[in-house]
Amino acid sequence: MTTIKDTPEEWEIRATETPFVGNKTSVRTDDVVMPDGSVVHRDYQVHPGSVAVLALDEQDRVLLINQYRHPVRHKLWEIPAGLLDVPGENPLHAAQRELYEEAHVKAEDWRVLTDVYTTPGGCDEAVRIFLARGVSEAEGERFAVEHEETDMAYARVPVDELVRRILAGDVHNNCLVVGVLSLVAARGGDGLDALRPADADWPARPFAS
Questions:
Q1: I need a surface site. Which of 55, 83, 107, 176 has the fewest CB within 10 A?
Q2: Helix or strand or coil: residue 101?
Q3: Hey, what's the signal peptide range on this chain (predicted)?
């Protein structure tokens, strides 16, 4: 019987170059040896990784933000998320920071909801999506936002309503869709308290405790 579990593997690379380096990401071109011995070019975006937070309040509502995303020319409803800006950064600490900075919210209970590669055919971005419960308003002044974040709107939407919106094709953000459907699946399975602890290993983006 086949074990359904992703496994690390790296095929031989004959040559590599980085034709573009941006502020946070870059583009790499590798010459990769295929199983038949041929060598092909593979272009992909090199990404530091991200974290996202599905913050669930006591009324079973998910905290959402609405933000302009220029590559897709849309304002998308999303859950709070951000880059792992520092190599080896603890993803839980990064998630707590993003929840505070984007929504001025803190949470008492944190779990790993799911880990995903967003677009593994063309980008090495790995995202860890956390479930945050026991949410409340953070203390102190709000974080100073800039650029697209200055135009953000906020909402708290019931989980059942979000599922309907997802299946109707009304919302498209990867972390929102994966996070909400994973939440529903976890509830229908072993329950939320059976989710992995917030400091669970993450081989895609190793970190210090």
A1: 83
A2: helix
A3: none
51: β partners: 82, 128
In this predicted structure, which of 7-11, 84-88, 117-121, 144-148 has the lowest mean pLDDT? 144-148
- Between CA 112 and CA 115 the distance in angstroms is 8
For 75-78, which contacts have Cβ atoms below 8 Å and span 24 or more sequence positions? 76/171, 76/172, 76/173, 77/155, 77/171, 77/173, 77/176, 78/173, 78/175, 78/176
pLDDT in tens, 174-192: 999 999 999 999 999 999 9
User: ∠55-61-62 over CA atoms, to 5°?
Assistant: 35
Q: Which helix (H) or strand (E) holds 17?
A: strand 13-21
Mind telling me the catalytic residues? 149
Dihedral sign from CA coordinates of 128, 27, 44, 146: positive
The answer to whether the beta carbons of residues 116 and 127 sit under 8 Å apart is yes
DSSP 140: S
What tokens were used for 123?
């980008």
Q: Which residues contact 152 (CB under 8 A, 6 or more apart)?
A: 65, 66, 67, 102, 145
**Average pLDDT for residues 49-60, to the nearest whole number?**
97
